[in-house]
Amino acid sequence: MSDCCTDFDSVISLKFSFLSILVFPFHLDYHLKKLCLRKVPSSFSLSYVKVKMLALFEQCSMPLARAVRPPRRTRVRPYSTVVAFAPSSTRGNSQVLLGLSENDLQQLALDFGQQSFRGKQLYHLIYKRKLREIQDFIQVPLGFRNDLEEAGWKVGRSPIFRTVTAADGTVKLLLKLEDNRLIETVGIPVEDNKGSVRLTACVSSQVGCPLRCSFCATGKGGFSRNLRRHEIVEQVLAIEEVFKRRVTNVVFMGMGEPMLNLKAVLEAHHCLNKDVQIGQRMMTISTVGVPNTIKKLASHKLQSTLAVSLHAPNQKLRETIVPSAKSYPLEALMRDCKEYFRETSRRVSFEYALLAGINDKVDHAVELAELLHQWGHGYHVNLIPFNPIEGSEYQRPYKKAVQAFANALESSKITVSVRQTRGLDANAACGQLRNEFQKTPLVTDSDNLESQPLIEFQKTPLVTDSDNLESQPLNTNVAVTC
Ligand code: SF4
Question: Which residues form a coiled coil (predicted)?
């Protein structure tokens, strides 16, 4: 007998001894009896029996595999490469695919008894094709799609509840979250001198904001909850869907204070960078200042810009504009900014909302320049002429005052830019994001969107529905950013 046959026999006997322990009594008796009764040519009887035994093994091994397979796990492993970003999508009411990495999705496929390339397919369908529903993944077997849905998995995309288009092409989107709360996100297209278009997504990090800065509509609307990772990422995908082009820049300057939801913001930042493929340097994280968070952010050594909203050159004035500044003195904030630069080699940029007659005097500019020189050099200041909001006592400054402020900073060797106001007529400019469902969710179900009352900002007429973005511009004037 050849070696091959010996191996073959030993495999058979091994398999059978294993199976006989685990499965057999009934199947083996039944099949051997059948074999013995069957008439087969004597010269083939040995190999015939072997073949039948193999077939028997295969028959038995399927139920056996099912019996010994570990229970199906629908939880995914934490990020293997970035320990700090364990998937938050496995917590909360539903399990969400958006926000998972390619590795996570491959593991998920394996956990569902699929081959790992199915995970790659999921990744492609979520991040490249940007599909919204699992049942739209027609490249994936129906059984796998059904298994995912039965286990409570969703893609994690929210419907676009409303869109408003401003005359300058800025589009504000309202996304309706799973708990019927609405968040706002803004797409800002800018064409440069060479004709290429940059599309910036201004994303929200919370539903509302607890910090109540005096000039900000979002703060006035109250606070409901932090956004989850996928709820931040999906804002960028929704803007890409509406504009039918890639988002090039992301600023975390929408509703909410990103540093109060730092974990989800970092996870979303990671996903936007690795999976949605937006460069770290194309992203800006903004904060009004939350104690101990700038240090934490610095430890991640991101290559993104940190924008700190100062709004005043001294502590006393700052407290009147930014109430939360009482718990984070200006000196401590500036020290943390200096430390951030030391850790990351990325300079902090400072945002300064100009409020007529409050903080827009040349003296304030001189004081601001002194403050910045005291804590380092090379700082950049973005001046933001106030965007009017309903119920605010603040006024937008005259152009002359804005220019004088900018000149005073420049003559003190501080680089400065005056933020061009975008989306004012859609109430989408900085400090203007607010909707009346920040605290109270919508009451009717998602199928009945038309019956919802319009949102606060639609006091200016609603321009378009999400499917008709090309239509008419609004007709109003000027605005600002925060
Ligand atoms: S400016 Fe930013 S931090 Fe202040 S209330 Fe508005 S959203 Fe919150």
Answer: none
Q: Is the pTM of this model over 0.85?
A: no
Atom of ligand 1 at shortest range from CA of 309: 1
Radius of gyration of the chain (CA): 30
For the domain made up of 93-154, give the CATH fold.
DNA polymerase; domain 1 (1.10.150)
Pocket-testing residue among 213, 265, 319, ligand 1, by greatest number of atoms within 8 A of Cβ:
213
Residue 199 alpha carbon to ligand 1 centre in Å: 23
Catalytic pick from 60, 184, 216, 267? 184
Please state which of the four CATH numbers 3.20.20.70, 2.60.40.10, 3.40.1790.10, 2.60.120.10 is assigned to the domain occupying 160-426. 3.20.20.70
Q: pLDDT tens for the chain, 482 residues: list them.
A: 333 333 434 433 444 444 444 444 444 444 444 444 444 444 444 444 444 444 443 343 333 333 333 344 434 333 332 223 334 343 445 799 999 999 999 999 999 999 999 999 999 999 999 999 999 999 999 999 999 999 999 999 999 999 999 998 999 999 999 999 999 999 999 988 788 889 999 999 999 999 999 988 887 888 999 999 999 999 999 999 999 999 999 999 999 999 999 999 999 999 999 999 999 999 999 999 999 999 999 999 999 999 999 999 999 999 999 999 999 999 999 999 999 999 999 989 999 999 999 999 999 999 999 999 999 887 899 999 998 777 788 999 999 999 999 999 999 999 999 987 766 555 655 555 565 555 566 654 443 443 333 333 322 322 223 322 222 222 222 222 33
With a Cβ cut-off of 6 Å, ligand 1 is lined by 209, 211-213, 216, 218-219, 255-257, 288, 482
Q: How far is CA 343 from CA 294, 418, 478, in A?
A: 11, 28, 39
Burial letters 258-294, b for 16+ CB under 10 A, else e: bbbbbebbbbbbbbbbebbebeeebbbbbbbbbeebb
